[in-house]
Amino acid sequence: MQMNASSDPIAHGTASRLRGLVRPLAAIALLAAMPALQAKELTPTPPASSTRFGNAIALSGDGSTVLMGTGTNSTNTGLVYSFDVEADYAQTKFDASGGGAERLGGAVSLSDNGARALLGGIGTSAVAGSAYIYNAATGAKVMKLTATDTIAISDTFGSTVVLSGNGNLALVGAIGAKKDITTGVTGGAVYLFDANTGVQTQRLTASNAVAGDKFGVSAALSDDGSIALIGSYG
User: Fold this and answer.
1) How far is CA 177 from CA 29, 33, 149, 182, 213, in A?
2) Gap between the Cα atoms of 109 and 144, Å rounded
3) How far is Cα 178 from Cα 126, in angstroms, rounded to an integer?
4) pLDDT > 70? residue 26
5) How far is CA 176 from CA 62, 77, 109, 171, in A?
6) Rounded mean pLDDT of 1-27?
7) How confident is the model at residue 50 (pLDDT cuts 50, 70, 90)?
8) Which residues pair with 119 in a beta bridge?
9) What is the pLDDT of residues 86-125, one digit of tens each?
10) Element of type H or E holding 154
11) Burial of 213 by CB count in 10 Å (0-12 exposed, 13-18 middle, 19+ buried)?
12) Is the separation of the CB atoms in 153 and 126 below 8 Å?
């Protein structure tokens, strides 16, 4: 919800400022006190045994689409399913063919309207990680996101993926990547792509990176993609 200056309670003095802070806290407390009700258990059909179903999950901003990834299966291609909440949780299985043992679905993200999905896979000891844009409604692969520099197996490209709310910007983490592409410490890197064209727009690293930082292990984007928040830990 957006507020203009005239409707913002914090803009009207100390008393209003206190009321503006108390109301959200009260609402949170009431929500926390309410019993949690399980509306639906989501399981793939046919059952996906030994695939870590639910390892990665995402919910569209409008709540209409659920995305679930496994990141593994018998061939290490990975499995990803979407569920249409408004159509009695109708299931769509994503097409992971043609990618090899990328463990697709180890990380997943959805645009706010649930139309576009971003899937990441960290790969295996023999296959580099990857990231793909999908049509979330049909499960069809739209494009592969390819970095301008060569991705090494050890980069774990695709370990983190985030779509901006409008679906126009894709962020892909590579926690094992070198700070300066071919040289420097392996502090991790984050790649930004235009999700409409697949073109890489930026490569982000920490200026004070040290080996093992895992820069990009977690990330978030604003709705319009103008602000990125990147996490790391040593």
Assistant:
1) 42, 44, 11, 9, 10
2) 15
3) 19
4) no
5) 34, 21, 21, 16
6) 33
7) low
8) 108, 132
9) 888 888 888 776 666 688 888 999 999 999 999 998 887 7
10) none
11) buried
12) yes
pLDDT band with cut points at 50, 70 and 90 for residue 36:
low
What the block records as the tokens of 121 is 């896979």
Strand bridging mode 107-110 / 90-93:
unpaired
Q: Are 89 and 42 spatial neighbours (Cβ–Cβ below 8 Å)?
A: yes
Residue 158 exposed, middle or buried by CB count within 10 Å (0-12, 13-18, 19+): buried
Q: Which two tokens stand for residue 120?
A: 């990441």
**Rounded CA gap, 33 and 79, in Å?**
36
End-to-end CA distance of the chain: 37
Q: If 0-12 CB within 10 Å is exposed, 13-18 middle and 19+ buried, where does residue 157 land? A: buried
Residue 149 contacts by C-beta under 8 Å, 6 or more apart in sequence?
A: 181, 182, 203
Residue 75 DSSP code: T
Q: pLDDT per residue over 129-177, tens digit each?
A: 899 999 998 999 999 998 998 888 889 899 999 999 999 999 999 999 9
Return d(Cα 109, Cα 111) in angstroms, integer. Answer: 7
Q: What is the pLDDT of residue 107?
A: 92
